[in-house]
Design a protein that fits this description.
The protein is an alpha/beta fold. The protein folds into four domains: about 100 residues, 2-Layer Sandwich (Beta-Lactamase), CATH 3.30.450.20; about 160 residues, 2-Layer Sandwich (Alpha-Beta Plaits); about 250 residues, EAL domain (TIM Barrel); about 120 residues, Response regulator (Rossmann fold). Helices cover about 45% and strands about 25% of the residues. The chain contains 27 helices and 27 strands. The strands form five sheets. The protein has an eight-stranded mixed beta barrel, surrounded by four helices. The protein has a five-stranded antiparallel beta sheet with strand order 2-1-5-4-3. A five-stranded mixed beta sheet has the order 7-8-6-11-12, with helices on both faces. The radius of gyration is 43 Å and the shape is elongated. The chain starts with 10 loop residues before the first helix and ends in a 6-residue tail after the last helix. The structure holds ligand C2E and calcium ion (2 copies). The site of ligand C2E has 24 residues, from strand 14, helix 12, helix 13, strand 16 and strand 18.
C-alpha cells in the first residue's frame, strides 16, 4: 500500500488509490497488528473466506487455520517473518463454511522509521480453482471419462512400474486383456447410452474381484486391461481370469429394463516368460485374447501355447472332479492294518478311488494333487470323512464292532478350519465312537506351520479321534516339535520299507523311527510291506503294525469285511527248531552241497542261498547267528554282503570263503569289523568244522576272539 505512494501524488490521492486497489483486487488482503489481531480486510477476503469484515476484525488470523499444518510449519513461518520481514508459501486454510482450500500467501512486516515492525500485511491468492483445473486436466490425460478407470497412458506407466518391482523382487506379473463378447450387439440394438451404462456396470463388477494392488484400466470400447502384481505362480492369473468371468455371470439390467448377458474373453501374458516390457506384454495378451475369441469366446488363453495346454487340462480335470463329487463317483477302498504280533486285522486305512462312468478306476495320485490346487479337496475330504463313518456304522450294524478306520487328511483341509466340525458331524450322524476314527496327517503339512498345527491337533484330540503321522521320515521334522504333536501313531514311509532288507540306510531309518515312536509311547506302522522278509525284519525290530500288499491290497468295503469275518491273519513265524542256525551263501550250488555235507552231523539248522540278495531275505525271515559266505559272487561280493549284514544284524558272526586273489578286499573287510574270520580255498574240512563251532561259541559269549 505504501508501495503505491508516489512522489507525484498527494497523500490523499495515494490513499484513495490504495483503497481502490484493495477493493478491486481478487486477492484477499489482511492487515494485523503484532499480536496478531486483524485490523483490516478487503472485500476479496470476505469473498474467499466467507468471513464478513465484522466477523474478522479483532480476531486472530488463526480463525482460518485448517489443521493441516503442524506447529513446526507455523513456527517457521513466524520466524521468517520476524527475522526477514517476509514469508511466502502455499498454505491450506479453512473457509467459514468449513471447506479447506489451498492458497498462495505472502506475508510482509510493515516497519516504522526506526525499522521496528508495527503491522503485518498478508496477501493471499485462492488456488482452489486452479487446482481443480489441474486435476481435471490430469484426469482427462490419465483416466477414461466414462468409467473413471486409468487409460492407456496411465496403464503403461503403472505396468512399467509393476515390472520394475517384479524384477527387483523376483516375482511374476501378468497382463490380462479382457474383451467383452458380443458387446457390439448390445450397443447396436439398445443404443450407445445403454452400452455406456453397461460398461460402467461391468467395471463395478470387475472391481469387486480385484486386490488392492491390481490395476484395472479401460483401453477402448469394450476392452479392459488388468495388471496383476506380485504373482507367485502364473496359475494365479488363470484363477483371476476365471473369477472375472464368474463375476459377469449374473445378467445385467439395461436402462431400458432389458437383460443383457455379458461374457468375456481373456488373454493372458505373463512376465517374465512372455516379455520384459510393458509393450511386449500388452501385445502378447492382445494376441491371446484374439485366440480366445477365435475359440468361441467366453474363455481365457495364455500367450504361451504350452501354458494353454496345461490350463485346458486343469480345467477339464476340475469340471470332471466337480461332477464326480456331485454324482457320487468316489468310492473308498480299505487296506487292512495288521498287528505284527498276533497277525490279526486291527482296522483299515480308507483310500479314495474315482470310479468313472465307464467303469475305470482312477488312482488318487492322479486327482488329489489337482483337487488340492483348485480347492475341491475340501468337499472331497469332507465326503471321505463322512463316508468312512457311514461305513463303520454299516460294519458295526453287521456285527463287526471293533474296526478302526484311518482317513487321509490333505494339507488344505487341515489348514482351512472346518475340519473339526466335519469330524464331529460325521461321527454324530453315524453314531461312531471317536476313538475308532483316525486321521492321517503328513509330516510336511504339520511342519509348514508347527505352532498352528499343534493347536489344531489339540482341538482334534479333544474330540477323541486319534492322529497318525503319515509318510514319516520323508519330511524334516524338528524333534523339538515332534514331541509336542499330540499323535497316537507314526507311519514309516513306504520308501524306507521297500529296501529295508537290503539297504542298511533304509533299515537304519526304519529302526530309528520304531525306537523314536516307542520312546514317545506311540504306536508304529510300516506301510507298503510287500514281502515276508520285510515283515520279518520289522517284526524282529519291534514294529507294531504293518500295512501292505503282503497281507492285502486296498479292497472294496465288502471285501474288507469278508477278510475280517473269515479271520484272515498274517502268518506268524514258527518258533525256530534249531537254536544254532547257520546261513551259507555261495553262487555255486555244488559248493553249497559240499559244505552242507561237511556240517551234516553238527546239528545246526542250515539255510543256503545262491546270492547275497537271497541271503538277506532269509536273514529277514529267520534268526541266524553265523553266516558263511563265498567272496566271489556275481551281483554282490561276500565282503559287501557281510558289510550290509553287519549294519542290519550287528550281532551275527560273519565268515568268508575266499580265493587268494581276493584276499586284499577280504582283509579290509576284516579290519572294518564286517568279517570275523576268513578261509582260503580249498579249505580243510576239519578246520572249517572247528572254526564254525567256535563262531557259535563266540556268538553265545562263551569264548572271546
Ligand atoms: P498314502 O496315504 O501314503 O497311502 C498309501 C498308498 O500306498 C496307497 O496308495 C496304497 O494303495 C499304497 N500301498 C499300500 N500298500 C502298498 C504296497 O504294499 N505296495 C505299494 N507299492 N503300494 C502300497 P493309493 O491308494 O494310490 O493312495 C495314494 C495316496 O493318495 C495316499 O498315499 C494319500 O496320500 C492319497 N490319498 C488316498 N486317499 C486319500 C483321501 O481320501 N484323501 C486324501 N487327502 N488323500 C488320499
Ligand atoms: Ca495315508
Ligand atoms: Ca503314507
Amino acid at each position: 500500500m505504501g508501495d503505491v505512494c508516489s512522489a507525484s501524488w498527494s497523500v490523499q490521492e495515494a490513499l484513495r488509490i490504495d483503497a481502490a486497489i484493495l477493493a478491486s483486487t481478487r486477492d484477499a488482503v489482511i492487515v494485523t497488528d503484532l499480536a496478531p489481531k486483524i485490523l483490516a480486510v478487503n472485500p476479496a477476503f470476505t469473498e474467499i473466506t466467507g468471513y464478513a469484515e465484522g466477523d474478522a476484525l479483532g480476531k486472530s488470523p488463526s480463525i482460518l487455520s485448517s489443521g493441516r499444518h503442524d506447529r513446526v510449519f507455523y513456527q517457521a513461518m513466524w520466524t521468517s517473518l520476524r527475522q526477514t520481514g517476509h514469508w511466502q508459501g502455499e498454505i491450506w486454510n479453512r473457509r467459514k463454511d468449513g471447506e479447506i482450500y489451498p492458497e498462495r500467501l505472502t506475508l510482509t512486516a510493515v516497519c516504522n522509521e526506526q525499522g521496528d515492525p508495527t503491522h503485518y500485511v498478508g496477501v493471499a491468492t485462492d488456488l482452489s480453482q486452479l487446482r481443480r483445473h489441474e486435476e481435471r486436466f490430469q484426469r482427462l490425460v490419465h483416466y477414461d471419462p466414462l468409467t473413471a478407470l486409468p487409460n492407456r497412458l496411465l496403464l503403461e506407466a503403472r505396468l512399467q512400474h509393476t515390472l520394475e518391482r517384479a524384477s527387483r523382487e523376483g516375482n511374476r506379473a501378468a497382463v490380462l486383456v479382457i474383451d467383452l463378447d458380443q458387446f457390439k450387439t448390445i450397443n447396436d440394438s439398445h443404443g450407445h447410452a445403454a452400452g455406456d451404462a453397461l460398461l460402467v456396470a461391468v467395471t463395478h463388477r470387475l472391481r469387486t474381484r480385484l486386490r488392492e494392488e491390481d490395476t484395472l484400466s479401460r483401453l477402448a470400447g469394450d476392452q479392459f486391461v488388468l495388471v496383476l502384481e506380485a504373482l507367485h505362480e502364473y496359475q494365479d492369473a488363470e484363477i483371476m481370469a476365471r473369477s472375472i468371468q464368474a463375476s459377469l455371470e449374473t445378467p445385467f439390467i439395461l436402462p431400458d429394463g432389458c437383460k443383457a448377458y455379458v461374457r468375456a474373453s481373456v488373454g493372458i501374458s505373463v512376465y517374465p516368460q512372455d516379455g520384459g516390457t510393458a509393450q511386449a506384454l500388452l501385445v502378447g495378451a492382445d494376441a491371446a485374447v484374439h485366440r480366445a475369441k477365435e475359440l468361441g469366446g467366453k474363455q481365457f488363453c495364455y500367450y504361451t501355447s504350452e501354458l494353454n495346454v496345461q490350463a485346458r487340462a486343469t480345467l477339464v480335470m476340475e469340471e470332471a472332479l466337480r461332477r464326480a463329487l456331485a454324482q457320487g463317483e468316489f468310492v473308498l477302498y480299505y487296506q487292512p492294518k495288521v498287528d505284527l504280533r498276533s497277525g490279526r486285522i486291527l482296522g483299515a486305512e480308507a483310500l479314495i478311488r474315482w470310479r468313472q462312468p465307464d467303469g475305470g478306476l482312477v488312482s488318487p495320485l492322479e486327482f488329489i494333487p489337482a483337487a488340492e490346487k483348485n480347492g475341491l479337496i475340501e468337499g472331497i475330504g469332507a465326503w471321505v470323512i463322512r463316508d468312512a463313518c457311514r461305513q463303520m456304522r454299516v460294519w458295526r450294524d453287521a456285527g463287526l464292532t471293533e474296526i478302526k478306520v484311518a482317513v487321509n487328511v490333505s494339507a488344505r483341509q487341515f489348514r482351512c478350519g472346518g475340519l473339526e466340525d466335519e469330524v464331529i458331524q460325521a461321527l454324530t450322524r453315524y453314531a461312531v465312537e471317536p476313538r475308532r476314527l483316525m486321521l492321517e496327517l503328513t509330516e510336511s503339512m504339520l511342519m509348514a506351520e508347527p505352532e498352528e498345527a499343534v493347536a489344531r491337533m489339540t482341538a482334534l484330540k479333544r474330540i477323541g479321534v486319534r492322529l497318525s503321522l503319515d509318510d514319516f521320515g520323508t519330511g524334516y521334522s524338528s524333534l523339538a516339535y515332534l514331541g509336542r504333536f499330540p499323535i497316537d501313531q507314526m507311519k514309516i514311509d513306504r520308501s524306507f520299507v521297500t529296501d529295508i532288507v537290503t539297504d542298511p540306510g533304509a533299515a537304519t531309518i526304519a529302526t530309528s523311527v520304531i525306537a523314536l515312536a516307542h520312546r514317545m509311547r506311540v504306536g508304529v506302522v510300516a506301510e507298503g510291506v510287500e514281502t515276508e522278509e520285510q515283515a520279518g525284519y520289522l517284526r524282529q525290530n519291534g514294529c507294531d503294525e504293518i500295512q501292505g500288499y503282503l497281507f492285502s491290497k486296498p479292497v472294496p468295503a465288502e471285501e474288507f469285511a469278508e477278510l475280517v469275518r473269515q479271520g484272515k491273519t498274517l502268518p506268524t513265524p514258527e518258533a525256530p527248531l534249531q537254536s544254532r542256525t547257520l546261513l551259507i551263501v555261495d553262487d555255486e550250488p555244488h559248493i553249497l552241497a559240499a559244505l552242507q555235507r561237511i556240517l551234516v552231523d553238527e546239528g545246526y539248522g542250515i539255510f543256503t542261498a545262491t546270492s547275497a540278495h537271497e541271503g538277506l531275505e532269509l536273514l529277514a525271515k529267520n534268526p541266524v547267528q553265523v553266516i558263511l559266505s563265498d567272496q566271489r559272487m556275481p551281483a554282490m561280493s561276500g565282503a559287501e554282503f557281510l558289510g550290509r549284514v553287519k549294519a542290519l544284524y550287528p550281532d551275527t558272526v560273519r565268515m568268508v570263503l575266499s580265493g587268494y586273489a581276493e584276499l586284499e578286499t577280504v582283509v579290509q573287510a576284516v579290519n572294518e569289523g564286517a568279517i570275523y574270520k576268513f578261509f582260503v580255498k580249498p579249505w580243510d574240512e576239519e578246520q572249517l568244522r572247528t572254526q564254525i563251532r567256535e563262531a557259535f561259541l563266540y556268538y553265545e559269549g562263551v569264548i572271546q576272539q
